[in-house]
Amino acid sequence: MIVSHLTIRLVDFSESETEYFSAILSLAEARLQQTWSIVTTENADFFVLTEKHLKESLLPGIPVTRCFFYDSGSTADNNHILVDHTKIPRLRSLVEVLNKAVGSQPPETAETAETAETAETAETAETAETAETAEVGHIDKVPEDVNEISDVPPSQQAAYIRIEASPPATSEEEAIGPAVFSPEHGLLKAVLDCKSVPVLIRVNDVGVYLDPVKGSYYCPLTLEQLIPCFDRDPIRIKPITQPELRQVVSNTKLSPKPLSNLIWYAAFKASQGRLLLGTSPEDVVHLIRWPDLGLPGCGNYVKLAAFMHSNTIKLSDIPSATQYPVEAVYDFYNACHLVGLIEKAAAIELHEKQIDLEHQNLLRKIRNRLKF
Amino acid sequence: MTGFIQTKIVFTGCVGAGKTTAITTISEKTPVSTEVKPSEASVIKRKATTTVAMDYGELTLEGGGVLYLYGTPGQRRFDFMTDILTKGALGLIVLIDNTHENPLDEMDYYLNLNYRFLLKSPAVIGITHYDETMQPSVDDYYSALAERGDPWPVIHVDARSLEDVRLLLNTLLAILEYG
């Protein structure tokens, strides 16, 4: 099941606790691979409960495998805190766990999940601890923690998380971390934000004229020369009129270049192996049109482009199907997505081509020959 | 018979699009070219010489096989050569001169001309002289292809550039493998 939007119900939270948790979640949005929202309905994909429910084994009608526990009173470092009133929690740990929980155990409906209540959530949290983003926070192993605090029946050992209180992050960016690609800086952001009137964008000494209506940009530098500007701040943006733009173009004799090429290449270079914010590896995607294969570096992705153009497939399945590293797939996907070449689909549709061995060998030999 | 692999890829497209140049660029042997002074008025305006029978180049593959590269004549009175040359080919490279009076119509023409072949085999569209004019744009080509229901990739290339010709061929191979 593909889940793109998940709900969380806060059980027995006071108004201030709800408000605080919501604020934390809102900040976390920038790193969530899924869209999460807090609901007040009886059913939800995940539940956050106070610790008393864990101690008293009070989980009326709630599948324990989808519960997280919240200790509002804890202050000591070794206490089990999901969100601490008095200190800033390690937000990124929360995000990691939520995302991992989704990835390792897609939520079922409350009715069907009750029968599947087992200790497997301990594995969920353990796996989360070893996730590749180790630098983003600490998630303690579940079994010891659970046993320390209560006599919880094994069948009710849920995804219990200790998130150490830590000093507030100095900036939102620091809190969000680098695991997700969010084009919020430099030339790329400015280009994406420019939708209606021509502008002059200056990054340091570099000036780029954009004409969003005609889908063109003007710059004497090549795309490769613009690389340092793609995610560098500060930038200055000055709206200009069409006559002013025409005057500049006339004076400088600059030729129009496709704006989509600038966006594609900037996103491609700035992604650095991170998946675009708002996209999940579980998303089923399809390349609706070929990118400009003549763009710098894009020629190395023809096989990936051909595959994504012919198949509708989960992003996470593309690396193994094409032998491209996951980082390369993400870079390519992000760039294509930002220029509108990607379509998300509800169902996987594979068109596996049946090529006999002789034909495969022939293609391999031609490809090898073309390398020289 | 040697038993070695013999296969071919065909370059087609309008006069002056760079078919001969592309084959010359990639071929490992001096290509055979049948260039003469053109007789069609439209061609005389554009080129001093043009291909009347075909262009021919080769790439030797490991194990002794050969990939033949054929270029069709640009003049339309030689269109009958197309069926002959594409028979048994892996795929088609359609080169279109973007400075042509009506390049989108040219693309349409060559895709129609090779309609039967393209039912089972892929094509890649190479736009040449794109540096001279970007109208029509690559987007315009894609729109025209979408109207026809054709999925072929469009790449702007310089037929003199080895990298660009390689890109055309590699893209064709990718479609053969995955498309």
Question: Brief description of this entry?
Answer:
The complex is a heterodimer of chains A (372) and B (179). By secondary structure, chain A is of the alpha/beta class. Chain A contains 15 helices and 14 strands.
Categorize the overall geometry of chain B: globular
**Into which percentage range does the β-strand content of chain B fall?**
25-35%
The overall average pLDDT of chain B, rounded, is 86
List the strand order in the largest sheet of chain B. Answer: 2-3-4-1-5-6-7
Number of strands of chain A: 14
Low-confidence stretches of chain B: none
| CATH structural fold name of chain B | Rossmann fold
User: What's the CATH H-level homologous superfamily of chain B?
Assistant: P-loop containing nucleotide triphosphate hydrolases
Q: Can you tell me about this structure?
A:
The complex is a heterodimer of chains A (372) and B (179). Chain A is built from 15 helices and 14 strands. Chain A is an alpha/beta fold. In chain A, a hairpin with a 4-residue loop joins strand 7 (206-211) and strand 8. Chain A has helices spanning 15-28, 51-55, 91-104, 110-113, 120-129, 142-149, 172-176, 186-193, 223-226, 242-252, 259-271, 302-310, 318-322, 326-338, 357-370; strands at residues 5-11, 35-39, 46-50, 67-70, 180-181, 199-203, 206-211, 216-218, 235-239, 257-258, 275-276, 284-287, 313-314, 342-345. The radius of gyration of chain A is 25 Å and the shape is flat. Mean pLDDT of chain A is 71; it is low at 73-81, 83-92 and 104-178. The longest helix of chain A has 14 residues, at 15-28. A five-stranded antiparallel β-sheet of chain A has the order 9-6-7-8-10, sandwiched between helices. Chain A has a four-stranded parallel β-sheet with strand order 2-1-3-4. Helix content of chain A is 37%, strand content 15%. Chain A folds into three domains: 5-176, no CATH class; 181-264, no CATH class; 273-372. With 179 residues, chain B is of the alpha/beta class. Chain B has a single domain (6-178), classed as P-loop containing nucleotide triphosphate hydrolases (Rossmann fold, 3-Layer(aba) Sandwich), CATH 3.40.50. In chain B, strands 2-3-4-1-5-6-7 form a seven-stranded mixed β-sheet, with helices on both faces. The mean pLDDT of chain B is 86. Classes of the chains: A alpha/beta (372), B alpha/beta (179). The interface between A and B is medium-sized, with 29 and 34 residues.
